[in-house]
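tool_log.txt
---
The assistant was asked to compare two proteins side by side. It first ran the structure predictor on the initial sequence, then on the second. Raw inputs and outputs are pasted verbatim so the downstream comparison step can read them without reformatting.
(1)
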Amino acid sequence: MGARGSGLRLWLLPLVPFVLLATANSAGYRYGASDLAFYGPAVMRQLDPGLFPRDTPVIDAQARLTLMDETVAAISRLTTNDLPTLFLGLYLLTLALLAAGIGAIGASLYRSRWTTIALLGAITLRHAIAKSGTNSLEGYFHPRQLAFAFGTLAIAAFLRGRTTVAALALCAAGSLHPTTTLWLAIWLGVATFVARPEWRKWLGAAIVAVVAVAIWTLTLGPLAGRLALMDAEWLAALDDKDYLFPLRWPASVWLMNAGYVVAIVWIYGRRTAAGVTTAAETGLAAGCLALAAVFAVAVPLNAARVALAIQLQPARVFWMLDLLAIIYLVWAIAEGRRTPGSRRASLAAAALAVLSLARGVYIMHIEFPERSLFGREPGGDWGRIAAWVRSTPKDSSWLADPLHAALYGTSLRMAAAHDVFVEGTKDAAIGMYDRGIALRTRDRLRRVALFTQMSADELRDVGRDYQLDYLISEAEMPMPLVYQAGLIRIYRLR
């Protein structure tokens, strides 16, 4: 009991600074930002099926592929229906579980507690995973991030020989984000095969069963048709999503991703020479490198435009390689092959903490001075607009600048729980999962491509053709004005 209490204190002590630094380095917590613009409405619709009568096909294009909306809606029913509070709580839970997982990994692989603290500091340094469409951290609740946090707990459990705990953590991840869980499962599956030779017979049987289920799923089951080729029209609708197509990447991205492999192999060799590796770590390194091999296999399928090879976004395996590379680089800096002294490790921890703090202060006070560290619902004029929209009937439909989410911080669909004609960035991304949605988004974006230059008559035509009720614009229009907040105006279209 004493040892457990000591371990709990060692985790809680750095937890608050970890959360604050991770949030500051992510430019503050923002409710409903970015990808939550389509995850959030999926949860809202689970809680109230009367929402989004027109946008349901867009929401379903991704929501039907995951259990995220059902999982988060169930949590909401058990806790609070106040989604801003719920999503903030899930964001904090994500960081707490990530800190726990990273701390446990460090405790298994490092010889100094200071090195583990250094690793926690390194993890707070949010960065993009090149051309993968993801970041190491996000400044809002993202089910992918929570799944990844569960993944770190699974890795820590694997390193400690707690297979059941690792499996349960992967199951929790799977209820939130299936593709992240897929890469984690491959990583730890290969790791177990390498580290536990006595299990290989049973693992082989499990692999055969999994392959059989996958074949059924892709041919007769819920993912039937995903092995078809994307046609030219579908691909053209995704043309600006270059992160989906590795052969379009610049050489610098290829070199960066190859650098992960080099770093992992090199530092693993140094750790082996230092006599600090275990069979579990050997498996972990092998499993991570296997993900690079999976990516290599996926590239020609992606080049052939097999839908599944694009929709799985296999470039995200480099998020996993990024994690192991950071774990290893921190060891090389703080400990290395020589017998570590607490001074070297503590200096590394202090340096990374100072770097994270300085970067976080710069981001929050210079780069994004208008943001608070923990912002909840949209505030200001856009928040007032969203509140007014929420007061209108659920089936009212809205026309706004297709870039309104970028302009105001979150989409109308997320902020006000109402249908919107098109949300340029996120609707286009969802198009990778469904050809019809891709073409629908393309056609709507073309119709309002020059939104800020369109006349009142042109906007009325769009409203008439699509039976839209209201227009949101900063321009003065000869239309019935029904509400205004600052420069943002709401006009009645019909």
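(2)
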Amino acid sequence: MRLAGRTGIVTGAARGIGAVTARALAVEGVNLTLFDRDGDGVTDVAREIAELGVRAIPVHGDVTNADDRARLVSVAEQELGPVDVLVNNAAIIEWVPFVQQSADRITEMVETNLTAPLLLARAVLPQMVQRRTGHLVTLCSLEGKVGIPHTATYGATKAALLVWNAALRAELDGSGVGVTAIAPGYVTGAGMWAAWNLPAPPLSGPVTPEKVANAVVRALRDNPQEIIVRSTPTRPLLAVAAIRPEIAGWLLKVMGIDKQMKSLISK
């Protein structure tokens, strides 16, 4: 996909990976509609991005609210034209033993992390297919490939997104619409580790938000099915874990992830 002059939506754009991704797309010349529950934050990001010479429209709302999703798509189309790119980034995480997680919180996480991305994609796909152009990019996680203790619900939603991404890509083969999942490892300077002012475990292969944003740009240009973003080799470890799942738990302890997850819970 040639990016200059295209139009895109980025959810969860007020901070972290969403904001950095929005800036990376703006540098490439993509006009953007930015969506987030933090109205002031997303307005600030839009104002900053507009200085890069593109149009940036902030929209305040909640991805779990059907009216807000409909308004987001309507504003994007009215202000910028048909949507060429959807970056499903908005997500929430909670560090808690599953047996202690409330039913309401589980429902909220599934609706935010899984249901909303599917329904937003469903809202923009018909026009993309009709125009035979467009791209869906979904921010997943390596936690969707290897179960991490104390974030079971989060991992479940990301695993589901990876399967959905693969199935949807097969359905849309030959349609002109690209579908890519981005699966980062732990991210420094954004997300859960930054929220607690803790460094990601060094052996986990942490990456910066900028590397994740660069992967989004690469996804739009090259249309791979999946991009893993990690600073150390990953696929051999995933292959071993797939063949011998019990090894994955041992690796988490060696990397120090299990210990640090428990430290987050104790805060």
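---
observation on (2): The mean pLDDT is 89. Residues 70 and 102 are 29 Å apart (CA to CA).
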